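pls ignore typos typing on phone
shikimate-3-phosphate + seq
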Amino acid sequence: MGKPRALSGRVRVPGDKSISHRALMFAALATGRTNIWGLLEGEDVLNTAKALQAMGCPVRKVGAGWEVLGRGVGGLAEPGLDIDFGNSGTGIRLMMGLIAGHDMRVRLVGDASLSRRPMGRVLKPLMQMGLEVEEKGKDRLPLTLRGTSDLLPVEYATPVPSAQIKSAVLLAGLHAAGTTTVVEAQPTRDHTERMLRHFGAEISVTERNGARAIQVQGDAELEGRRIDVPGDPSSAAFLAAAALIVPGSEIVIEGTLVNPTRTGFYVTLAEMGADVAFHNPREAGGEPVADIVVRHSRLRGVRVPPERAPSMIDEYPVLACLAAYAEGETRMEGLAELKVKESDRLAATAAGLAANGVPAKVEGDALVVGGGKSVRGGGMVSTHLDHRIAMAFLTLGLGADRPVSVDDADTIATSFPEFRGLMERLGATYSLPETVG
Ligand code: S3P
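k done
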């Protein structure tokens, strides 16, 4: 390939996916109207909107924003049909917490990727609270759940760091009589805690023997609110990596969420020697945001410690691709959870790098990438219905000697439909099918 053109300009990435799912669901549990600005209109979030509509909650687009007319805690209705969450683990797992607290029977389905992912991790605590699963002992979709309006509160210590497990239990706890407690040994993204407080729930967070204990009061009453969804730092990561790969680049990603439970990728970039700064820090809707300024930099390989994983769990594929351009070896540790994402991201990332001539190996739960040589490229990457694998490898291709191809770019629409358009606005020359962006 010829020398790539430097990337430049100011852009805003679409709304944060985690916050978008939560905004719709919490609004549905509130009384009165919630207006949401900056909602991510990716397939995952639209599936959550459709699920709420099927459960009798009016959710609609009004002008540039979204309006939800809440049904109150416990006020959703049994849907007539199966609910299809497509590719979305967050949508389905959080919704399980909601279903648990309603007297309803719901059959849940998803695409091939979601049907391979474990659901027992969320069902286990919810069953302790009173949820019934018709397919006893089954861990994968399709599943039929029976909720109850007599949910019991629990105290639950999450066995793996997962904001989805934590959030499902806290959402169910809103419906239970009494105090529900979730204890997490490693802090995970705290959007549920922040947003529940914003909607008026009684929620407290305390330290308990080095762990975080989150308590929510049941029989809760939430009130409709205005929500401003900041830009998604996990989507911004692809743009930041692109600017770091292409010489001469300088970009600004405006209004991006910089919640410390989500910024591990940016901390790692700084350790690699990247010129990355958070400008104009401010608050939007109870979350910290900033304009992220990224300038092309010479990078060095680093060791990324396991305790950082929860704060950058979705960014490892793109970090691994970026590591191919860093001097020396990058070793990312504690990645067991990557194996149960939209694909086995540990295996998919290592295979994609190898297909493009980048030395990469999986050592237990660690991924080791050798950088510093030119990236040969020319490989076809199997994306396994995983949007982040597709975007990570399209980013790898920006600096490779030969083009990098992905077998399926359509999945990008699940989290970042504007990927192609924004990359092109910055000056990247991606060649993607017309269906994307
Ligand atoms: C999410 C939590 C994470 C993350 C996912 C979004 C959330 O999953 O990977 O993209 O919104 O709570 P886990 O809870 O499985 O770690």
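The first strand starts at residue 8 and ends at 11. The chain is about 30% helix and 25% strand. more later
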